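FW: tagging you since you asked about this chain on Friday. Here's the raw sequence from the shared folder, copied in full. Didn't touch anything.
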Amino acid sequence: MSNSDASAPQRGRPTVLDRAAIATEAFRLWAERGYDDVGWKDIAEATGVSVRTLVRHFARKSDIAWIGVPAATRRLRDALDDTPEGSPVGDAVRRAIVASISDDPMMPAGPAWIRVVCAEPEIAGTAPTAYQPWIDELARFIDHRVPGITPAAATAVASGYQAATFAALVAWSEAGSHERAAAAADEALTWLSIPAP
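HL: got it, structure written out here
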């Protein structure tokens, strides 16, 4: 798609954007030049999508870093919804989190993505907002499955699992391991538990 095609969409028709391709190019540019040295124009030239279209779809440049989180949240929700009623909560949570992790190197939680997210304060600063729907899904499940837990406690536990998962993925990325990201997270999460009621 040329820049002129992207900047002149037909009226009344929604713009279809290959968000994964945009993220791939943005991460490539950020890795080569640094996050602060890559502007909207650079991303537009690399992707063939106009600056105007990019800005319409991404309120901030840092939003590009989080495009994989909604899909991860859907995978988490689907895995939680498929959990048999009698399954131990801790095991169900761990399996669902592992199911939510993508093997795409530019999506959460590939090594290239993790390096950029950790290195760039602007991106890291938007992580709490980006991950809130994922945490909310996990908290909903915990609240439903753990008798007596308060919604605040369920959210705290879910937030702890999110932080532990991200820490495991950072360690995996830094180690240069050849194992899958999901396997690294699975191994780390076995050390966490939710007490049986």
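FW: The radius of gyration is 19 Å.
HL: agreed, and The longest helix spans residues 151-175.
FW: great, closing this out.
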